[in-house]
Amino acid sequence: MRRSRFTNNEILQLLGEASAGVPVAEICSTSGITPRTFYRWRRQFGGLDVPAARQMKELASENLRLRGLVSNLFEQLRRPDDHAAGAKPASTITVHRTAEEKARDQTRASRIAAAKCGGALTGHFAAVRGNR
């Protein structure tokens, strides 16, 4: 996604001018943006001031970092445990598994993940996985 030419402070300044009574067409022509962009910014930033916009940006970056941590955790939970009792050595694991075995392993992995995450099932199809 392409970055904006304008910083959040500049966008908020333009929105503040509009709320002070300057016509939107004049703001758009002097700043070199389209009215569509201006109204998109108005919808996105609404009544935010500079500190609130800064906090929103920090929360978005933290949210991105936390999503990465959660996805890494789920990947670790879905890997077979090498330390589990009765685990086969890597050299004896068969490569070809039936669809039923794959489905069973996937269900087991989602249940383990749910148990380790306090019973929370996450993802796009969480409701479907939870009913099995």
Outline the biggest β-sheet: none
Radius of gyration: 25 Å
Strand content: under 5%
Uncertain ranges:
none
What is the number of E strands? 0
User: Residue share in helices?
Assistant: 55-70%
By secondary-structure content and strand pairing, the structural class works out as mainly alpha
When the domains are counted, the total is 2
- pLDDT averaged over residues: 75
Rounded to the nearest angstrom, the distance between the terminal CA atoms is 38 Å
What is the tally of helical segments? Answer: 6
Order of secondary-structure elements = HHHHHH
Describe the global form: elongated
What does this structure look like?
- The two termini are 38 Å apart.
- The protein folds into two domains: 1-78, no CATH class; 93-132.
- It is built from six helices and no strands.
- It is elongated.
- The protein is mainly alpha-helical.
- The protein has helices at 8-19, 24-31, 35-45, 50-78, 99-116, 126-130.
